[in-house]
DNA sequence: TGGTTTATTGACTCGTCAATCAATAAAAGG
DNA sequence: CCTTTTATTGATTGACGAGTCAATAAACCA
């Protein structure tokens, strides 16, 4: 009994299911049938709406990146002063909405996919570029000379902490993960807790 | 015309070919036939010696880890004093033998495989444990309180730098990569260039 | 020499899976 | 109503690939 206007609902469900299945399997070796079943539809319908498995992966990735982007924007909106902005970006990177087993697993797999699918590579580069920008701006106010290098170091560390979580036996702990990066930040800027506050 | 004693030669060639193919494809979606062809043998022979594709992946991984281990041991043998030892471990992590496109690509894919194959997970954990140990020991002599946390931070950063290389447009530059991590180290310990030298 | 071990492969089996198609059915619209 | 559009699926196709097997052949051995 086909109600109309199902397309966005189905698509959203399939995107969620894609992420969940990749997270569960821990790899991109998930069949369209598995994804579709989890979303409660037939595999034919999944193809009908997305055209191909690759498009499903891309949609899933855009979804993850957009969640993360929202998290960052939300945190930045509340931050005042460069130091606070830096902390906001870092904390947002480990917020519960992104720092979850399944999302981390999916994210790792997208790095793999980036080596094959140009559009995935493009998206990941956009993400990396954005996170660097978000870090560089406030860093310029605190340590203009080293802003560029520090931003890249922080970004690398954030990615590295994610990566280590993949093998972690215990469930991800965003607060602790963020603490490690914040610690790096303080060491680089001089722990002086607020040296650049209140723009 | 079968010469005897081929087994180790074929195995070595197949291991190399496995790494090269994974690096080329940028994923684990490589067929045994592709690997075998690159090694100059039939796919049947590959199965004959390894039993399964999974065993080939495992052998490839052990090979990569053992190259890296050798690099670290070699560097440590020449180092004197804790600070120097730290530098040695970090530099070894970006030595030319490991820090190459194909190896980096393969390494990333092994992280993915670790989510599926317990033995791969075990091997990666051994690697992580060892790198942390190698860092923690000299750190204990320089900053006993923070040794544990710093070791994990450094390890995360090393992994993160590798990860970023996956998307890098320009070919990997080990020296520059190492510099970023060494910079973090100096910031954490106080740049005083040799505070812990000459044990 | 004849038997055993090692090396090596082509051909085949058996599954799996992405993608397609044709068919069913309910709503919308005139 | 009858048509068009949207939703939905079961069944099918076509390709591809891991792993197996039986056969060939050279080397070694007694």
UniProtKB/TrEMBL annotation, chains A, B:
GO terms, molecular function: DNA-binding transcription factor activity; transcription cis-regulatory region binding
Keywords: DNA-binding, Repressor, Transcription, Transcription regulation
Superkingdom, taxonomy of origin: Bacteria
Gene Ontology terms describing biological process: glycine betaine biosynthetic process from choline; negative regulation of DNA-templated transcription
Pfam families: TetR_C_6, TetR_N
Pathway connected to this protein: Amine and polyamine biosynthesis; betaine biosynthesis via choline pathway [regulation]
Function summary: Repressor involved in choline regulation of the bet genes.
NCBIfam families per UniProt: betaine_BetI, PRK00767.1
Protein name: HTH-type transcriptional regulator BetI
Gene from which this protein is expressed: betI
């Amino acid at each position: 009994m086909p109600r109309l206007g199902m397309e966005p609902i189905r698509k959203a469900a399939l995107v969620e299911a894609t992420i969940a299945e990749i997270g569960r399997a821990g790899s991109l070796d998930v069949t369209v049938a598995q994804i579709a079943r989890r979303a409660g539809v037939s595999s034919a319908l999944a193809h009908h709406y997305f055209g191909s498995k690759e498009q499903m992966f891309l949609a899933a990735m855009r979804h993850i990146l957009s969640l993360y982007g929202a998290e960052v924007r939300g945190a930045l909106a509340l931050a005042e002063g460069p130091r606070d902005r830096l902390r906001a970006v870092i904390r947002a990177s480990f917020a519960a909405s992104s720092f979850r087993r399944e999302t981390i697993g999916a994210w790792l797999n997208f790095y793999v996919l980036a080596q094959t699918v140009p559009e995935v590579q493009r998206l990941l580069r956009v993400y990396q570029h954005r996170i660097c920008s978000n870090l560089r701006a406030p860093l310029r106010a605190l340590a203009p000379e080293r802003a560029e290098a520090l931003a890249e170091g922080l970004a690398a560390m954030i990615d590295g902490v994610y990566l280590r979580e993949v093998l972690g036996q215990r469930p991800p702990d965003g607060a602790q993960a963020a603490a490690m990066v914040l610690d790096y930040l303080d060491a680089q800027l001089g722990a002086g807790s607020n040296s650049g506050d209140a723009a």
